[in-house]
Amino acid sequence: MSSNFSYKYRFDNHNTKHIKAKFSKKMALPNNIGDETNEVLAAQAHILNHVLNYVISMSLKCAIQLEIPDIIYSHGRAMTLSDLLNALPINKSKGHDCIYRLMRILIHADFFIQGEEGYLLAPTSRLLLKNESLSLAPFVQAQLDPILMDPWHSLSEWFTNGDSTPFATTHGKPLFEYAGDDPRVNRLLNEAMGSDARLIISVLIKNGKGVFEGLKSLVDVGGGTGTVAKAISNAFPELKCSVFDLPHVIEGLEGGNNLSYIGGDMFKSIPFAHAILLKWILHD
Length: 284
Known about the structure:
two-stranded antiparallel sheet; 8 strands; 45% helix; methyltransferase; S-adenosyl-L-methionine; WH-like_DNA-bd_sf; protein dimerization activity
């Protein structure tokens, strides 16, 4: 079969969610191509789709770092490729073809829209604007930062050793201990969790107020810098809210009125409250 086929990659206009492997003929295919051959081709395409999925993630990270969503938003209307190139702080020799390809990837992944007059923001890219109150840009950048990506390359090694996590195998210590020693990583994680929390808690307070009715106190375990607890305390002034997290996470943070910060280790003890909030923490 390998002598009859070669493959090339292109973006499938019928499916903007994934990169599809499309096969082209070097010689005529037999009319009676069998089910077994189709199955092998489909299996190969399946493997390639998953192996190359990182292209979309890393292209998205690049767009955020170059502030492409903000540039298009500030433009105020559909933005042509030439206008985008002029606005980007890049080496212009890498401009036209490379930015065109970058945008092509992200358009087919539904992060931008190709209008008749130029590029437009999609609902997803609006959630990546720096000044958007519900922006997920910090979360995207944290998850795709080398500090969190590198441990995936140690996964097989981790299965053979006694380390607690692949992160510890790669960096020599667990994630939260590492963050306690590295201000950049601590800030990266706090901003990421805060950006995700703002979106979730806005929906919860709007549509799930009944959850908090009758409560006198609540502790947000692993509550980070208090994004969720602040929103709850503001929405329910009679509810006493506490943020419980590692000392280096809440260092320098001050509460007020019905909000307080408590440093500690949830694996040793948790402060008493009528309700315990666990958001993105059970996996720890």
